Amino acid sequence: MAKPIKVGDPVPDISLPDAQGEIIRLRDFQGKKAIVLFFYPKSESPGCTIEACAFRDAYGIFQDLGAEVIGISDDSVAAQARFTTNQKLPFLVLSDKGNQARQAFGVPGALFGFLPGRVTYVIDQGGIVRHIFDSMLNFKAHVDESLAILNGLASTAG
């Protein structure tokens, strides 16, 4: 596994398929939008559904702050498509089937490495990681933390 990404590091240049199988490249957002990138263990699991729906419910606020929300798990494209449809997710959900993104970011595993970690990264428009939040059980705090950081970035940029 790669050395974990830290605040101040540039975002790794990863490309993964979304729920429709289209390849999404993180660097394509650079200079256009901030990114809130959240890694979650498993589509449709109770905690991941709570987290994704919290991001869904706050999506308009993220958009108003100039940020795109992107969820990533190692579920298949088909599983991501079901999750996106079932939960009415308006944001990108990417399939990291080979764990290339998880490894590039150095996302730790939880529960002795048996369960993939739940970590959220706030990345500014320049592609620099500005905040990292790691909590397996505080699902909604991933949204609250991200919004607080984006509000701070917006006030310093303005």
TrEMBL record:
CDD domains: PRX_BCP. Residues 5-155 form the Thioredoxin domain. Pfam families: AhpC-TSA. One of its GO terms (cellular component) is cytoplasm. It comes from the Bacteria. The active site is at 48 (cysteine sulfenic acid (-soh) intermediate). GO terms for biological process: cell redox homeostasis; cellular response to oxidative stress. Keywords: Antioxidant, Disulfide bond, Oxidoreductase, Peroxidase, Redox-active center. Its EC number is 1.11.1.24. It catalyses: a hydroperoxide + [thioredoxin]-dithiol = an alcohol + [thioredoxin]-disulfide + H2O. InterPro entries: AhpC/TSA (IPR000866), Peroxiredoxin_AhpC-typ (IPR024706), Peroxiredoxin_BCP/PrxQ (IPR050924), Thioredoxin-like_sf (IPR036249), Thioredoxin_domain (IPR013766). GO terms for molecular function: thioredoxin peroxidase activity. Monomer. Thiol-specific peroxidase that catalyzes the reduction of hydrogen peroxide and organic hydroperoxides to water and alcohols, respectively. Plays a role in cell protection against oxidative stress by detoxifying peroxides and as sensor of hydrogen peroxide-mediated signaling events. Belongs to the peroxiredoxin family. BCP/PrxQ subfamily. This is thioredoxin-dependent peroxiredoxin. It comes from Pseudocalidococcus azoricus BACA0444.
